[in-house]
Write a structure and sequence with these properties.
The protein has three domains: 64 residues, PUA domain (Archaeosine Trna-guanine Transglycosylase, Chain: A, domain 4, Roll), CATH 2.30.130.10; 112 residues, RNA methyltransferase domain (HRMD) like (Transcription Regulator spoIIAA, 2-Layer Sandwich); 187 residues, Vaccinia Virus protein VP39 (Rossmann fold). 28% of the residues lie in helices and 26% in strands. The protein has ten helices and 19 strands. It starts with a strand and ends with a strand. It has a seven-stranded mixed beta sheet, with helices on both faces. A five-stranded mixed beta sheet has the order 1-3-4-5-2. A five-stranded mixed beta sheet has the order 6-7-8-9-10. A hairpin with an 8-residue loop joins strand 6 and strand 7. It binds S-adenosyl-L-homocysteine. S-adenosyl-L-homocysteine (SAH) binds next to helix 6 and helix 8. The site of S-adenosyl-L-homocysteine (SAH) has 17 residues, from helix 6 and helix 8.
Length: 389
């Protein structure tokens, strides 16, 4: 059994059930451990504290359990069933929506594991080598918890693991032709987990897209950082007069246009391939609504200052140019920028733009992306709906 001993001044965090052990907290020799090894975490007196997956990285152990139990099939069955039960209780799958996140890492006490569900297909994405090594157990756990609801399980970890892990992407159960048709709020979406970003779609904006729909009737909408066009589709379904979708990736725009076409929204839509930061400097139209949903500008704390400058500039451009009375849906998914800092950045942008701004709604990640109360770092998506006088 691989033992990781913790400095006695650092055990507090584990006793408070924080699921990460940083390399600086470890006093024992771990150099012979392999990435992905199951390790037992002990205090300086060799008392059991937790068990998890080891990796030679700043986050050295991702804790899966604080009980002295094996990380076997029963363990994964129990955890996955628990996660699936939550989604069932949330009634996320309806006649109009068959997309949701089934497992959200630390939020479901399975650090390093993401599982997304697209109309019968579960897509597994591992962010740790330990989880990748457990992918067969995870697949069995999903079959056990979902029964007939799941027709295929795809493992896609090649772009989320360190290169040395050489994750291979493959179906672990069944198979499915991609793109695969799925629904969100009645809108049709073509999902391709094989060629798409992440698991194929940004599920975390589901409720915020629905909210945008409510604001959109008769409006001119600019959806920047559109990826596959999720916000554009909701706006069009709810009666927007026109929608322009912008992304710097040509591939993303191809996805958007395919989705626009299968929903027959083509006559009210135009797409633009451009860098949003450049494009927003001088808009060609006056819009009623602008959506700003950039990728994480800061992945690390050291990048935070620069990221904030980026959010400020982007938002100042939108606030300055939107129609009087216009609405801005603005987001940040940088985990290191918390909601207070984000709000303050937006206030700074409003000052720079010289217009009065009111905050109408405060947005966040949905319930199928839960935040473990002992792991506040899990809160990453925040947004504001602004009205500009
Ligand atoms: N709003 C989307 C998700 C956005 S993901 C949804 O609802 O699904 C972020 C997107 O920003 C990606 O599609 C990426 O290609 C795009 N992107 C990244 N940098 C960009 C830039 N400088 N200008 C425009 N788009 C950019």
């Amino acid at each position: 059994m691989n033992i990781v001993k913790i400095n006695k001044n650092k055990i507090n965090s584990i006793e408070r059930k924080h699921p990460w052990v940083f390399s600086g907290a470890i006093t024992s020799d771990t150099k012979d451990f392999k990435d992905g090894d199951v390790v037992t975490v002990c205090d300086h007196k060799d008392h059991f504290l937790a068990r998890g997956h080891y990796q030679h990285a700043t986050i050295s152990v991702r804790i899966l359990t604080f009980e002295d139990e094996e990380l076997n099939q029963d363990f994964f069955n129990k955890r996955i069933l628990n996660a699936v039960e939550l989604r069932k209780n949330l009634n996320l799958i309806t006649k109009k929506t068959n997309i949701c996140r089934l497992i959200h890492g630390e939020g479901d006490s399975l650090p390093g594991l993401i599982v997304d569900f697209y109309n019968g297909v579960a897509v597994i994405q591992c962010h740790s080598i330990g989880m990748y090594n457990s992918v067969e157990l995870i697949s069995e756990g999903l079959k056990n918890a979902l029964g007939k609801m799941v027709t295929a399980i795809y493992s896609k970890s090649s772009d989320t693991l360190p290169q040395r892990a050489e994750g291979k992407d493959a179906y672990l159960f069944g198979s499915c032709v991609t793109p695969h048709l799925a629904l969100e709020h009645g809108v049709k979406l073509q999902i391709d987990w094989i060629t798409g970003q992440k698991t194929g779609f940004f599920i975390d904006q589901r409720e915020n897209r629905f909210l945008l729909g409510k604001y959109s009737k008769g409006k001119k909408v600019l959806n920047t950082f559109c990826y596959s066009g999720g916000f554009s589709l909701l706006a069009l379904q709810e009666g927007a007069e026109l929608v322009h979708s912008l992304d710097s990736s040509k591939k993303a725009i191809v996805l958007t246009e395919a989705n626009i076409e299968i929903n027959n929204f083509g006559d009210k839509h135009k797409s633009i391939v451009a860098d949003a930061m450049e494009y927003m400097k001088d808009l060609e139209e006056e819009y009623d609504i602008i959506v700003l949903d950039p990728p994480a500008f800061a992945k690390h704390r050291e990048k935070r200052h620069k990221a904030i400058q980026g959010y400020k500039r982007l938002n100042a451009h939108a606030i300055r140019q939107i129609k009087p009375g216009g609405i801005i849906f603005t987001f940040s998914c940088s985990q290191v920028v918390d909601k207070f800092l984000f709000t303050n950045t937006i206030i700074a942008a409003a000052i720079e733009a010289g217009r009065n701004v009111r905050i109408l709604e405060q947005l966040h990640q949905p319930a199928d992306h839960p935040v473990n109360a002992f792991h506040p770092e899990g809160e990453y998506l925040k947004g504001l709906v602004l009205q500009v006088d």
